[in-house]
Amino acid sequence: MTKKVVILGGDGVGPEVADVTADVLRKMSLDLEILEPICGEKAQAELGNFFPDETRKLCDESDAILFGASGTTSGFLLAYLRWGLDNYINIRPIKYYPGCRTPLKDAEGIDFVILREGIEGMYPGREGDISLLTKNLPEYRDILGKSFADYGEGKFAVRIITDSGARRFLKFSCEFTLQRKAAGYKGNLTCVTKSNVLRESDGLFYRIMEEEIKLFPELILEHYYVDDMARRILRFPKDLNVLTTTNMFGDILSDEAAELVGGLGMSASACIGGTVPYFEPVHGAAPDIAGQGIVNPTAMMFSAKMMLDQLGMADAARALDDGIAAVYREGRYLTHDQGGSTSTTKFADAVMKKIG
Asked: What is the pTM of this model?
């Protein structure tokens, strides 16, 4: 059955990587209905609305959404895609493809996944003036015995971890790791917290992790504090399999890990679990290079590959992955961030030729 896919360019370089990826998908002659409604900066300029009602309706009715980048105008669009659609699972693969630029002498074999809880924690920003806490929580004392009034003027941010939110995410983390084990990967699941300091919120997260893993005796649970995990990603990247963590920690660690395998231009993600899944490169709008035709579209194409897998088109996903991998192995058509001089469109053309 034909799947309906909405591709949203968004802001900055988003439309550039979206356009070439849409072109590749169309040339692959898949059973997809690909729609590219207006949104972001272009919609704001032409219609006075960065996310028109017609565009939102198409998204609500689609099987999947492919999103380019969020910038100054489309922050609310990103909120709709993640929180509005309840996409609480963020999957960020970290895999080395021979030929890409890496700071390591030997990156061959790096292949792990960071699972990031997508809608709780520090995101979206729940902030305010400390005076609000002073007024509404006058009796509260922290571990130092201080009240909020003792801190004087300033701002606060609230971090939220719920039992239900953590449990559904960590259950998925176990199921995901079990699927990787069945595919030949390790069976270790690494939970990353800062529960030695954030004893209540991260303490709850890890206690639920311990409960859920008991239902999966085939798996091995590991636990590291986030500062130690940041070091381990650099020191032992080939030993890692699946990392599961909270929203902000996952955001930071995945950006760090991406640098080992070519940078954000290579880093894709899937945001699933809600009513309509969406897929996006980890990089942002990059306004400094927007419109120059030099942005690397690999992350967007890898996101499209993840989308195809989610839609049950495994053969097409594999063909796209193989095509991208072949271009990097050959090394003739690499973009500027990878040490080459190939334009965005010519890179996409090279991938398409490898796919055939």
From this structure: 0.95
A 10 A CB-CB count for 312 gives 12
pLDDT number for residue 44: 85
44 Rama sector, left if φ>0, alpha if ψ -120 to 50, beta otherwise: alpha
The fold of the 102-121+171-261 domain, in CATH, is: Cobalt-precorrin-4 Transmethylase; domain 1 (3.40.1010)
pLDDT at 217 over 90: yes
Q: What is the pLDDT of residue 73?
A: 61
Write the pLDDT tens digit of every residue in 253-280.
999 999 999 999 999 999 999 999 999 9
The partner residues of 222 in beta bridges, in order of sequence, read 190
Alpha helix positions (H), 36-104 = 40-47, 53-60, 75-79
Q: Which residues contact 78 (CB under 8 A, 6 or more apart)?
A: 67, 70
Q: Domain 1-91+268-356: what homologous superfamily?
A: Isopropylmalate Dehydrogenase (3.40.718.10)
Rounded Cα gap, residues 9 and 70, in angstroms? 9
